[in-house]
C-alpha cells in the first residue's frame, strides 16, 4: 500500500460510524476554531501557550486550501519549519493537500519543487531571499517561487515586529578600501587609549576623595564609561541608581561641568539608546589624524572611524556576536540564535572583525533588498499567531494594518506566578539562584534558568558546575544540541541553563511519570530522616496537599509541610 493515499469522504464517514467509542475522533476546542476563523480574515491572534496554535493554523490552512489558494506558514527558524511540515504532512496529505518545507540547505531545484505545493512551511528569511532572487532573474531563467498569495506567521511579534527593521539584502561586488579601514582602526585605537587615561585619572580622583563635586564627577564617568568598575562600586555603596546618574547628567548640561566633559573626554556613551558620539576633544583628535579636507576618501575614513568607535564601545563579544571558525557571527538580540548569513552594514562588520583580530571582509554593493513589511505587503492576506501579541498591537496596526484579537484560554492556568526578586549585586543574585536550584533539584523537580546573553549563561553554568550541580547549557555557542537539550529538560532532576533562544516555538514536555518520581524522592527523604519531626518546603498549596496525601500513610513521623515562597526572602 502506498505510504500516502487520498480516500473519498465516504471512506472517512464509514470509519466514523464504526468508531462507536470515538477512539479515532479528534475534536478541536471552540477557542481553536475561533482562532482559525480569525486567521482566515487577516487578524493577529493571541493564544496562550498550550492552547493549540498549531491546530488553529492547520484549520486555517485547510480553509485556504479549500478555496484553491496557496499558503505560506512562516515560522521563526528552519528547525520549526521542517518539524511542523513533517509532523503535519500525514494530516494534509490524507485530505489531498500537498505540503513541504523550504529551509536553508535546499538548492534551487528543491525549492522550486517545494513552492509548487499548496502549503509551504518556511521562514521570512528564506521566502524573502527567494523573492529577491526571482526579481533578479532574467529570461529564460525559471523563477523559484510560484507567486505569494497568503501567509500565516507563527510567533508573529518576533518575526514581524522584533525584526521589521532588518532588511533582507542580496549583495554583489566588494566596495570597501582596506587601506582606509586600517587607517581608521589605528586612529580609533589611539583615541581609545587617550580616553582610557582620562577615565583612569577620574577613578583616581574619586577614590582619593579629591573631587569637589562627586555627583557631577560620577555622572560624567558614567557618560564616559558606563561599565566602569569604580563607578559600579561607588554607586552600589551609595545606593545610587542609573536613573539618578542620568538625571545628574541632564542637570549639568550647558554648565561648566558639561564644558569640562567635552574638553576632558574623547567620546560620550549613552547606554540607554546604545549610541556613542565624539566630544569636541574627540573630534579634534580625529581631524588631526585624518585631516579636514573635503574629499570622498576623508569622509569614508571618518565614517569608518565612527563604526570602529561603535564596535569597541557598544558591541560585546558573546552578547551581540560570537567568534567562530567562520569569523564574526551575529546573535539575534531577541531569541539568542546565531545569524550566520547576516552582516552589519556600513563598515560595522569590518570594524568588529578588525577588533577581534580577524581579516576584514569588506562590504559589498547592494543588488536587491526588501524590508519585512515590504515583503508582507506582497501577500494578498497576512495573519499570525503569538502568545504575546497584545503588547505589540499598536505596532501591528501601524506597520502592517493588522488588528490583534486575544482568545481567552479554554482552561484556567495552573501556573503559580511569583513576584520578582531584586538584589543589590550579581553575587547576591547568584547566591539566591544557587539556593533555589539546589533545593528543587534535591526533590527532582526540573529547573529551567533563563538568561539574556551567552556571557550570563556561561557565568550561571560555571556557578552550578563549581557547586557540583549537574546541568545542560543551551546558548548560541552550542545550539547544535538544542533539540536534545530541550528533550531532556523535562526529565526528573534536570537542570537547564538557556538563553532566550529556547523561548520560541520549543516546548519542554514534562515526563508522564514525573510527579510519581518526585513523590518517591520525597518519601525516600522522609525515610532517611534520623528524627521524627521535620519540614519539607513546598512552593504552592497544591504541592503541599499532594505530598500530604502521599506521605500520610505512616505514623512514624510528624511531618510539617510548609508552603514557602523562596523568592520572598
Task: Explain what the structure shows.
By secondary structure, this protein is an alpha/beta fold. The protein folds into four domains: 9-173 and 371-406, P-loop containing nucleotide triphosphate hydrolases (Rossmann fold, 3-Layer(aba) Sandwich); 178-314, no CATH class; 426-503, Rossmann fold (3-Layer(aba) Sandwich); 516-563. The strands form six sheets. The protein has a seven-stranded parallel β-sheet, with helices on both faces. Helix 21 crosses helix 22. The model is unreliable at 1-5, 555-559 and 563-569 (pLDDT under 50).
List the helices and strands and how they pair.
Layout: H1 9-18, H2 30-39, E1 44-46, H3 53-66, E2 71-75, H4 78-94, E3 99-101, H5 108-115, E4 119-123, H6 124-136, E5 150-153, H7 156-162, E6 168-174, H8 178-208, H9 214-224, H10 229-238, H11 242-252, H12 256-264, E7 267-270, E8 275-278, H13 280-290, H14 296-313, E9 321-324, E10 327-331, E11 338-339, H15 348-355, E12 364-370, H16 372-376, E13 381-386, H17 393-400, E14 404-406, H18 426-443, E15 447-451, H19 454-466, E16 472-474, H20 482-488, E17 495-499, H21 514-527, E18 533-538, H22 541-551, E19 558-563
Parallel strand pairs: 1-13, 1-14, 2-4, 2-5, 3-4, 5-13, 15-17, 16-17, 18-19
Antiparallel strand pairs: 6-12, 7-8, 9-10, 10-11
Q: How much of the residues is beta strand, in percent?
A: 15-25%
Q: How many DSSP H or I helices?
A: 22
Q: What is the CATH topology descriptor of the largest domain?
A: Rossmann fold
* Adjacency order of strands in the biggest sheet: 3-4-2-5-13-1-14
CATH superfamily of the largest domain: P-loop containing nucleotide triphosphate hydrolases
Q: What is the terminal-to-terminal distance?
A: 64 Å
What is the CATH architecture assignment of the largest domain?
A: 3-Layer(aba) Sandwich
Give the tally of structural domains.
4
Number of strands: 19
pLDDT averaged residue by residue: 83
Largest sheet: 7 strands, parallel
Can you tell me the residue ranges where pLDDT is under 50 for at least 5 consecutive residues?
1-5, 555-559, 563-569
Q: Helix/strand-derived class?
A: alpha/beta
Amino acid at each position: 500500500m502506498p505510504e500516502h493515499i487520498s480516500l473519498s469522504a465516504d471512506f472517512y464517514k464509514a470509519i466514523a460510524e464504526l468508531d462507536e467509542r470515538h477512539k479515532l475522533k479528534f475534536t478541536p476546542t471552540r477557542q481553536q476554531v475561533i482562532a482559525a476563523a480569525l486567521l482566515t480574515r487577516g487578524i493577529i491572534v493571541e493564544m496562550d501557550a498550550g492552547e493549540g496554535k498549531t491546530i488553529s493554523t492547520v484549520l486555517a490552512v485547510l480553509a485556504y486550501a479549500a478555496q484553491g489558494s496557496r499558503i505560506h506558514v512562516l515560522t521563526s527558524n528552519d528547525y520549526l519549519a521542517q518539524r511542523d511540515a513533517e509532523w503535519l504532512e500525514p494530516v494534509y496529505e490524507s485530505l489531498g493537500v500537498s505540503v513541504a518545507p523550504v529551509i536553508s540547505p535546499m538548492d534551487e531545484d528543491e525549492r522550486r519543487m517545494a513552492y509548487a505545493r499548496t502549503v509551504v512551511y518556511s521562514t521570512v528569511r528564506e521566502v524573502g531571499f527567494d523573492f529577491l532572487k526571482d526579481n533578479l532573474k532574467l529570461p529564460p531563467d525559471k523563477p523559484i517561487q510560484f507567486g505569494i498569495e497568503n501567509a500565516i506567521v507563527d510567533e508573529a511579534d518576533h518575526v514581524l515586529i522584533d525584526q521589521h527593521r532588518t532588511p533582507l539584502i542580496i549583495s554583489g561586488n566588494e566596495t570597501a578600501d582596506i587601506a582606509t579601514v586600517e587607517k581608521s582602526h589605528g586612529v580609533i585605537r589611539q583615541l581609545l587609549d587617550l580616553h582610557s587615561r582620562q577615565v583612569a585619572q577620574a577613578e583616581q580622583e574619586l577614590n582619593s576623595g579629591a573631587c569637589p563635586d562627586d555627583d557631577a564627577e560620577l555622572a560624567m564617568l558614567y557618560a564616559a564609561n558606563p561599565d566602569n568598575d569604580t563607578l559600579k562600586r561607588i554607586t552600589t555603596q551609595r545606593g545610587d541608581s542609573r536613573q539618578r546618574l542620568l538625571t545628574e547628567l541632564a542637570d549639568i548640561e550647558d554648565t561648566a561641568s558639561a564644558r569640562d566633559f567635552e574638553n576632558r573626554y574623547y567620546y560620550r556613551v549613552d547606554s540607554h539608546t546604545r549610541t556613542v558620539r565624539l566630544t569636541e576633544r574627540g573630534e579634534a583628535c580625529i581631524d588631526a589624524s585624518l585631516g579636514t579636507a573635503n574629499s570622498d576618501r576623508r569622509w569614508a575614513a571618518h565614517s569608518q572611524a565612527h563604526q570602529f568607535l561603535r564596535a569597541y564601545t557598544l558591541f560585546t563579544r558573546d552578547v551581540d556576536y560570537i567568534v567562530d571558525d567562520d569569523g564574526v557571527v551575529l546573535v539575534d538580540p531577541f531569541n539568542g540564535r546565531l545569524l550566520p548569513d547576516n552582516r552589519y552594514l556600513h563598515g560595522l562588520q569590518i570594524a568588529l572583525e578588525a577588533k577581534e583580530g580577524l581579516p576584514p571582509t569588506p562590504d559589498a554593493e547592494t543588488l536587491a533588498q526588501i524590508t519585512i513589511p515590504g515583503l508582507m505587503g506582497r501577500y494578498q492576506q497576512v495573519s499570525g499567531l503569538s502568545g504575546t501579541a497584545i503588547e505589540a498591537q499598536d505596532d501591528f496596526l501601524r506597520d502592517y494594518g493588522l488588528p490583534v484579537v486575544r482568545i481567552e484560554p479554554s482552561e484556567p492556568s495552573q501556573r503559580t506566578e511569583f513576584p520578582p526578586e531584586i538584589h543589590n549585586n550579581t553575587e547576591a543574585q547568584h547566591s539566591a539562584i544557587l539556593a533555589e536550584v539546589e533545593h528543587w533539584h534535591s526533590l527532582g523537580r526540573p529547573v529551567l534558568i533563563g538568561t539574556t546573553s551567552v556571557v550570563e549563561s556561561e557565568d550561571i553554568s560555571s556557578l552550578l558546575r563549581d557547586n557540583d550541580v549537574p546541568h545542560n547549557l543551551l546558548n548560541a555557542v552550542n545550539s547544535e544540541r538544542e533539540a536534545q537539550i530541550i528533550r531532556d529538560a523535562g526529565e526528573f532532576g534536570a537542570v537547564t541553563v538557556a538563553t532566550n533562544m529556547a523561548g520560541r516555538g520549543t516546548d519542554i514536555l514534562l515526563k508522564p511519570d514525573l510527579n510519581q518520581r518526585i513523590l518517591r524522592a520525597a518519601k525516600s527523604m522522609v525515610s532517611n530522616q534520623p528524627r521524627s519531626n521535620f519540614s519539607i518546603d513546598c512552593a504552592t498549596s497544591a504541592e503541599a496537599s499532594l505530598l500530604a496525601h502521599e506521605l500520610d500513610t505512616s505514623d512514624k513521623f510528624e511531618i510539617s509541610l510548609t508552603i514557602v515562597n523562596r523568592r520572598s526572602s
